[in-house]
Specification:
The protein is mostly helical. The protein has 5 helices and 2 strands. The chain has helices at 10-17, 56-76, 80-89, 104-112, 120-133; strands at 21-24, 94-98. It has a two-stranded parallel ribbon. The longest helix has 21 residues, at 56-76. It binds NADP nicotinamide-adenine-dinucleotide phosphate. NADP nicotinamide-adenine-dinucleotide phosphate binds next to α4.
Length: 142
């Protein structure tokens, strides 16, 4: 959701050539699952704390973004994680996504997010929320 650079060139090329695209980090290492509080303190050794998307102004913007997704997820009858995964796997050219999960219940929840595409009115609200968020000022590590 927040790293869209491939839409400029790679996605059109893959669509034209019939090449599959597997994206990773759909939940931005848990951030887009909506479970990390604004004042979350990462444990020593948790690599997320070193990423700019988890620091300063970008962190606050990401938290604002997730907060705006919450009522949309409720309206869609999904968890925030499911909403994000659903939106991701139904983007043009995206064929699947690698979801990280640490517990069986996360696997079940995340798999449930890949079902039917979201309704047009839900997609429109997500698009508006993404536009409000704007592009991140930092790149994510690969
Ligand atoms: N270049 C590459 O090919 C490449 C690069 C990076 C990653 N990957 C692969 O992509 C996959 C996903 O990466 P990732 O695990 O780092 O990122 P991710 O899928 O964005 O985030 C996974 C984390 O989100 C949390 N989470 C997952 N489901 C949740 C849910 N339903 N509710 C709340 N929290 C949830 C868990 O954190 P907690 O443990 O805190 O609960 C989990 O560790 C991995 O298999 C990784 O190896 C590939």
């Amino acid at each position: 959701m927040l790293q869209r650079e491939i839409e400029q060139d790679l996605v059109p090329w893959c669509l034209a050539q019939g090449v599959a695209i597997v994206v990773y980090w759909p939940l931005l290492k848990g951030l887009l699952a909506g479970k990390l509080a604004r004042d979350h303190v990462f444990a020593a050794g948790d690599g997320r704390s070193k990423y700019p998307m988890f620091q300063g102004a970008e962190w606050q913007k990401n938290q604002d973004f997730v907060d705006r997704l919450r009522p949309i997820a409720v309206e869609a009858g999904l968890s925030v994680a499911q909403l994000v995964i659903n939106w991701t796997v139904h983007q043009p050219g995206i064929t699947s996504t690698l979801c990280g999960a640490k517990r069986p219940e996360q696997v079940i929840e995340n798999a449930g997010g890949a079902a039917l595409p979201l309704a047009p009115e839900i997609l429109a609200k997500i698009d508006a929320t993404l536009a409000e968020r704007g592009a991140p000022q930092v790149s994510l590590p690969v």
